Amino acid sequence: MKRMASLAAVAIMAAGTLTACSGGGGYCDKLKDYDQDADIADLDFQTEEGQQKLIDVMEDLESEAPDELKDDYQVVIDGFTSLRDGNPEDIDPKFQDAFTAIGEDAQENCDVDMGV
Prior knowledge:
By secondary structure, the protein is an all-alpha fold. The protein has six helices and no strands. Helix 2 (25-35) packs antiparallel against helix 4 (48-64) and helix 4 runs antiparallel to helix 5.
């Protein structure tokens, strides 16, 4: 349960703490768009609906992400899917590292703070 709560906190940070994106390109533009989406900020990520929306957002970001982040996105998406399905024990041990890599890249290349 403790791990599930930690992952839920990461989910909230992932979708709810994006800030301004001054970089260009489709990927940075998507990050900025999600940052400005009030509907996402208001979602309850403890619910299946909120968790599914987070998965949808991550899949959308993955579609524009740089190639070097594709594997990290897949680990994160799979982790959130396991959480949504009630199987936190199936989350890849690399989940936190993958999420951190995505967040660091967002900060460095898009000037977006994902809270990691």
